[in-house]
Specification:
The protein has 124 residues and is an all-beta fold. 0% of the residues lie in helices and 60% in strands.
C-alpha cells in the first residue's frame, strides 16, 4: 500500500573524498553523486532492510515497484534526510511472492537528482 510506514535510522557521516596526487600536491575531489544502496535479506519474506548513504542532505522517496514499474509500496515519500548512512526497514509481508525493485530517489540540496534501483525477491 502507498504510505506504508518504515522505520528510519540515520547516522551523520561526511561524504567520501578522493585524493589526487598530481604534481605531488594533494587536492580533495568530491566523489560523483551516487546513492550506495543495499537490500538485505534478499530474497525476503516479511521485511527487508534498505541501507543507503547520501552524499548531501536530500529529499528522499523510497518506492517498491513491480515488474511493470507500478508503485506497490511507498515507505518514504519526500522525506528530508541528512548526509550520511540511512537504514530503513520495509514491511513486505503483504506482498505476494515475486520479483520487485526498490527505487530510491534523492533530490539533493544542490539540485542534483539521483535515482538508484536494486532488485528485490519476495519468496515464501
Amino acid at each position: 500500500k502507498a504510505g506504508e510506514i518504515a522505520s528510519i535510522t540515520s547516522t551523520t557521516q561526511k561524504p567520501d573524498i578522493l585524493q589526487s596526487s598530481a604534481n605531488k600536491k594533494s587536492t580533495a575531489i568530491p566523489k560523483p553523486y551516487t546513492v550506495d544502496l543495499l537490500t538485505a535479506p534478499n530474497p525476503a519474506e516479511t521485511q527487508v532492510g534498505l541501507r543507503f548513504s547520501l552524499p548531501d542532505d536530500a529529499m528522499v522517496t523510497v518506492e517498491v515497484v513491480d515488474a511493470l514499474q507500478r508503485i506497490i509500496l511507498t515507505p518514504l515519500s519526500n522525506e528530508r534526510l541528512s548526509t550520511g548512512m540511512q537504514e530503513i526497514t520495509i514491511p513486505v509481508g503483504i506482498l505476494p511472492s515475486g520479483a520487485y525493485s526498490v527505487r530510491v530517489k534523492a533530490h539533493l540540496s544542490n539540485g542534483t537528482i539521483i535515482v538508484e534501483r536494486r532488485a528485490l525477491i519476495i519468496a515464501r
